[in-house]
Design brief:
- Strands 13, 14, 15, 18, 19 and 20 form a six-stranded antiparallel beta sheet that branches. Strands 1-2-3-4 form a four-stranded antiparallel beta sheet, with no helix packed on it. It has a four-stranded antiparallel beta sheet with strand order 5-6-7-8, with helices on one face.
- The protein is 9% helix and 34% strand.
- It is mainly beta and 306 residues long.
- The chain is globular and about 55 Å long.
Length: 306
Amino acid sequence: MGDQLKSDGVSWGDYVRAERFLPWNAARLAFELDVEPHWIGGGDRFWYRAERIDGVWFFVVDTASGHTEPAFDHVRLAAILSRTTGTPFDAAKLPLEAIEIGDDGSLTFEIEGASWRYDPASDALTSNTADEAAPNDVVRSPDGAWDAFVRGHDLWIRKVESGEERQLTNDGEEHYAYGAGLVSPLTTAGIAEADLPSVVWSPDSSRLLTVRIDARNALYLHLVQSVPKDGSIRPRLHSYAYPLPGDETTPLAELWAFDAAAGGGVKVDREPIQLLYYGSPLHKDHVWWSADGRRFHHLTRDRGYL
């Protein structure tokens, strides 16, 4: 129809030009507008992922000096991965996930579910896939010795090697439970996977941070799933805690810290965190531990931060 005018005086060409500014189209033209820092150990350095017109690259920033450099030799790693796996990898499009960078520059990552460790100093790439994978309902400690999980409404840990279990809390109850965020309707509807326990381990695996969410006075929103995922005919109702403007009560999250070896725990001395959305306020990328696991910093963000 070309640029034929529609009844509102706007041509199809106008719509085509406007479409270029939709977020998913504009993203192809604008690069490095956002930096998401991932702090390395307890120091002053962080790494981030940069999407540029020439590919995807990873950098390390030293905040003390302001110096920025590649997190690793992308061309070298792509060559080693290609030779080791028999699958060609492009240095500008390395599909790395679950990335961890150590103080020594070592790199652990996943590609299509396979876990790897790369040591730039020795130029050695080793597979971690042979190690026993953590179950999908636990959070494993960095040293691989402990699994943290939720049973009932309480938080537990288990020694990976022996299977010995330890109950860290014993007063959890429905709507006032440890280790789990507010459930999303996408999870109960079978559209999204269940969240992992809301636990963040210290780098030395000596302590763990978790939440206890008080949803006893929460107000609920309700959605009807007209076409259930299991193929059943009858629609299903999904109710979930979801504050709305004007609500006088909201779910509240307390932070708790536990010692893995001793089992003792303390409630963090801070005001409870208002939860204005489902999920948990505790995320791995929002917690920074000191190297000795004795202190941490926690970042909270409001619902409207975007």
